[in-house]
């Protein structure tokens, strides 16, 4: 059974962040009620309008897709001229839905596939009109940020994931419109390959051979095979948003991961500063610098988190609890350096501080720590062995 169509947890998380951090910019980009006269003029000059009298099957498919998605909107269709690659896209207008076809796509689609393609494009409209255009405003904000060379990488990575999330949402609209997984995947394949005859079941078997836990490497759309996998698993009520997030990577965080990494750093620094052997005012002062803004350290709760296992991530804005995410090697290395910085912040802690930090590393599953500390501090083999033996005793 096709599930309900609502924004992905990623959409809700980014919207919540943007409204909190960039409220004025977001509000300035909320959609206005007026139509865009330039778009209408350009379409009339450069495309062929597909009217209902000559294309009744196209307009009937649109009516059925609208009913399936709960949309009450006029739909207009246009065919681009002199375009070779099969494609369809939504040109957003406030008062109507405008869908532009390119290349010989319409010639290749069967009725159910046509409904899926239209449902995909109308789902974009559905997302952009939810909550008074809130998600469209985020889309515009991230799009504008991507065009500015001064934009921080966190915004660029957020835009990449946001656009992919929107495509997964639209794929669900395609499935909801036509009501059949094989038909939806077949339509997707025809657009991606340009072939008239495709095998959706073979494509779904191909998807099952992939390890998608590392996330999609797509720049605007997830890989087609990943989109097919996501549809199948959405039907099975599985979490598919790992396609958007992948492991927690300090080298390429989006806005949400950057905030998560700040919280993780602050919590880990607090654990370190409260460890016997490192519990000094100097270490506490350094550890407080990982808070945002810097301030007094709270008392950490529970045991030191394990970083060699997938890390439990807090839910975002009422979304289901996300699947735990593994940490990349770069993120583990960053945590090792954080630990070493605090272990050496106060010279008075001496070997006791180093041994305590090695004990923390063992409890946290940071196996690269001993090698990293050795490389940075230049231990002799004998000194390393003595420190390791003492750390093992502390853990026991």
From TrEMBL:
- Cofactor(s) needed: Zn(2+)
Question: What's the protein's topology in the membrane?
Answer: Multi-pass membrane protein
Q: Where in the cell is it found?
A: Cell membrane
Free-text comment on the cofactor:
Binds 1 zinc ion per subunit.
The record's section on InterPro entries has: HtpX_protease, Peptidase_M48
Q: Where is the Peptidase M48 domain?
A: 55-124
Q: What's one GO MF term for it? A: metallopeptidase activity
Q: Which UniProt keywords apply?
A: Cell membrane, Hydrolase, Isomerase, Membrane, Metal-binding, Metalloprotease, Protease, Transmembrane, Transmembrane helix, Zinc
- Similarity-based family: Belongs to the peptidase M48 family.
What is this protein's record name?
A: M48 family metalloprotease
Q: Record the organism.
A: Kribbella alba
The organism's taxonomy opens as: Bacteria, Bacillati, Actinomycetota, Actinomycetes, Propionibacteriales
């Amino acid at each position: 059974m096709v599930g309900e169509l609502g924004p992905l947890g990623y959409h809700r998380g980014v919207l919540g962040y943007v409204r909190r951090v960039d409220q004025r910019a977001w509000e300035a980009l909320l959609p206005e009620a007026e139509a865009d006269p330039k778009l209408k003029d350009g379409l009339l000059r450069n495309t062929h309008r597909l009217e209902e009298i000559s294309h009744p099957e196209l307009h009937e498919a649109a009516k059925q897709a609208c009913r399936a998605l709960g949309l009450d909107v006029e739909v207009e269709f246009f065919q681009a001229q002199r375009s070779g690659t099969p494609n369809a896209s939504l040109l957003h207008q406030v008062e109507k839905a405008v869908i532009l076809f390119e290349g010989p796509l319409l010639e290749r689609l069967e009725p159910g596939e046509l409904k899926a393609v239209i449902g995909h494009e109308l789902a974009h409209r559905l997302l952009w009109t939810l909550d008074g255009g809130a998600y469209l405003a985020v889309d515009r904000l991230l799009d504008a940020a991507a065009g500015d060379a001064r934009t921080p990488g966190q915004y660029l990575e957020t835009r990449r994931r946001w656009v992919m999330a929107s495509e997964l949402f639209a794929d669900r609209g395609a499935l909801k419109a036509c009501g059949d997984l094989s038909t939806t995947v077949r339509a997707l394949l025809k657009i991606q390959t340009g072939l008239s005859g495709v095998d959706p079941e073979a494509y779904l078997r191909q998807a099952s051979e992939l390890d998608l836990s590392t996330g999609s490497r797509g720049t605007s759309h997830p890989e087609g095979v990943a989109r097919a996998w996501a549809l199948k698993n959405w039907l099975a009520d599985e979490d598919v948003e790992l396609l958007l997030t992948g492991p927690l990577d300090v080298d390429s965080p989006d806005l949400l991961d950057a905030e998560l990494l700040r919280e993780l750093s602050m919590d880990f620094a607090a654990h370190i500063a409260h460890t016997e052997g490192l519990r000094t005012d100097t270490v506490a002062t350094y550890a407080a610098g990982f808070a945002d803004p810097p301030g007094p350290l709270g008392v950490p709760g529970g045991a030191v988190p394990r970083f060699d296992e997938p890390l439990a991530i807090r839910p975002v804005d009422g979304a289901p609890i996300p699947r735990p995410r593994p940490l990349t090697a770069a993120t583990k290395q960053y945590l090792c350096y954080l630990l070493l910085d605090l272990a050496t912040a106060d010279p008075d802690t001496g070997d006791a501080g180093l041994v305590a930090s090695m004990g923390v590393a063992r409890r946290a599953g940071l196996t690269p720590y001993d090698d990293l500390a050795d490389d940075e501090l230049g231990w002799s083999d004998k000194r390393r062995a003595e420190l390791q033996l003492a750390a093992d005793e502390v853990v026991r």
